[in-house]
From TrEMBL:
Keyword terms of this UniProt record: Ligase
SMART domains: Gln-synt_C
Keyword Ligase: yes
Matching PROSITE patterns: GS_CATALYTIC
Taxonomic source organism: Actinomadura graeca
Name the record gives this protein: Glutamine synthetase
Organism superkingdom: Bacteria
InterPro entries: Gln_synt_N_sf, Gln_synth/guanido_kin_cat_dom, Gln_synth_cat_dom
Length: 492
């Protein structure tokens, strides 16, 4: 670690040549956007509390923003969900400045907000050094470490949200049909049509959309991509949902617990590990048949092996690394006090540290896909993460945990094919099934004690995550479940 709290091996600094290159690209992009009647670009980042923050620039200032950035305070990293501010060892107070630089590769007009474009922002110090709390950079660093070991990953978030027809603080479901029922599609068919159109126009590949279990709740699934792209897409999808909802006089909540007596919103992560065909290890079994291989030539380590349900040895080790660290991972994946109102047994939220084939009560679900497409479709689903998570930080931590499993050659315990909550405590213990933390404080303690995550994320990130989580715990200390849900409902 250097004095900034960032691993010293990471170097993504901006120099004069890079600034000039970015400025030239941005000037061309600005001309194109102006021709599409775009007048402003929203530069977004996600803070440690999981809230998407923004600064915007007129399209004519995009060139300057790309070259020199837009000023912002570092203190946003220690904002709590109610916008109060705490201080950690690395971040806190009014002094200092950072620069937001738009990622021009992800710059896109927003169909749901005519006249506006969106670009996720990366954050740098004024000297061009990467800010240690820039979670996009943290994720890209973990992707690079995985690549150095000969692997890549693909990821996607399932996004759940609840729709209210009320403009007040309370929640009034915008539809009333049964869970997963076609009635809910009929009730809001125009809204859902406009949402799908907006996402398609914005370039998001939607794989499916359906009504969910809770009142007024829906879920959308998008195509997998590289982890940084998946996190960018998750932000874009949520803001598109929010904008289309408002256009229809509705309010969308992505909170992990919209109502205290109902199920919450998850943000399940789908994740798969990939490597080159000729690099697959011998004990992992033969590569998939040519007819099942993706055109890219890489091979999915979650299929075609001799391990449980077709996992290769690398795929099993990657999964085992994640499973081992789930208690600590919850500090970034289930990061709110409200998260633990959602994370309860027998609610399909993944409240137990176990894995299983297509087991929706296991925190780690192996999805193989249908026969004939397993080589492209097989993946892990992390079910215990929710909509309060910063998607960049969540994926960075998952990759770090999986990489640690690869390095250790870790193996999985026996899979679980029942609801673990229905097993007697002694049987749970015998099968090695542990309840995940039931409070945010427990997760934070596990997170701070985990050396792998501390090294991967950096001291600045580790300290700031713990500081913000303790701040929220103190903020909501003594609150009833109803008060926690109300305080969180419209913040994510």
């Amino acid at each position: 670690m250097d004095d900034s709290g960032q691993p010293a091996a990471f170097d993504g600094a901006l120099d004069g040549n890079e600034r000039a290159r970015l400025g030239a690209r941005a000037a061309e992009a600005a001309r194109r956007l102006a021709g599409q009647d775009v007048v402003a670009v929203a530069l977004t980042w996600v803070d440690v509390s999981g809230i998407t923050r923004t600064k915007t620039v007129p399209v004519g200032r995009l060139e300057h923003a790309a070259s020199w950035g837009v000023g912002m305070s570092p203190v946003f990293d220690v904002f709590l969900l109610d916008d109060s501010i705490v201080s950690g060892r690395y971040i806190g107070g009014p002094a200092g400045d950072l620069r937001l630089h738009p990622d021009l590769d992800r710059l896109v007009p927003m169909a749901a907000m005519p006249g506006w474009a969106h670009a996720p922002a990366s954050r740098y110090a004024q000297d061009g050094a990467v800010h240690p709390l820039d979670t996009r950079a943290v994720l890209r660093r973990e992707m690079a470490r995985l690549a150095a070991a000969g692997f890549t990953a693909k990821a996607a978030f399932e996004i759940e949200w609840a729709l209210s027809e009320s403009a007040g603080d309370g929640f009034a479901p915008a539809c009333h049909g049964p869970a997963y029922g076609m009635t809910r599609v009929s009730e809001l068919s125009g809204y859902l049509r406009d949402l799908l159109r907006a996402l398609d126009t914005t370039g998001v590949t939607v794989e499916q959309l359906h009504p969910e279990y809770a009142a007024g709740q829906y879920e959308i699934s998008v195509a997998a991509e590289d982890p940084a792209g998946a996190a960018d897409t998750a932000v874009l999808v949520r803001e598109t949902i929010r904008a289309v909802s408002m256009e229809h006089g509705l309010i969308a909540s992505f909170s992990p617990k919209v109502e205290a007596d109902s199920v919450g919103n998850g943000a399940h992560v789908h994740l798969s590990l990939w490597r080159e065909d000729d690099a697959r290890d011998g004990q992992a079994g033969e590569p998939a048949a040519a007819s099942e291989r993706p055109a890219s030539g890489s091979a999915n380590a979650m299929a075609g092996g001799d391990g449980p349900y077709g996992l290769t040895s690398a795929g099993e080790s990657f999964a085992a690394g994640i499973l081992e660290r789930l208690p600590a991972l919850l500090a970034v994946g289930a990061p709110s006090v409200a998260s633990y109102l959602r994370l309860v047994p027998s609610h399909w939220s993944g409240a137990f540290a176990c894995w299983g084939l297509e087991n929706r009560e296991a925190a780690l679900r192996l999805v193989t896909g249908a026969d004939g497409e397993r080589a492209s479709a097989a993946n892990l689903e992390v079910k215990c993460f929710d909509g309060a998570a910063n998607p960049y930080l969540a994926l960075a931590a998952l990759l770090a945990a999986g990489r640690a499993g690869l390095d250790a050659g870790a193996t999985l315990p026996d899979p679980v094919d029942v609801d673990p909550g229905t097993l007697a405590p002694d049987e749970q213990a015998e099968r090695g099934i542990a309840r995940l933390p039931s409070t945010l404080a427990e997760s934070v303690a596990a997170f701070e004690a985990d050396g792998v995550l501390r090294e991967a994320l950096g001291e600045a990130v580790t300290d700031t995550v713990a500081t913000v989580r303790r701040g929220e715990i103190a903020l909501l200390d003594g609150a009833t479940p109803e008060q926690v849900a109300a305080a969180t409902r419209w913040r994510h």
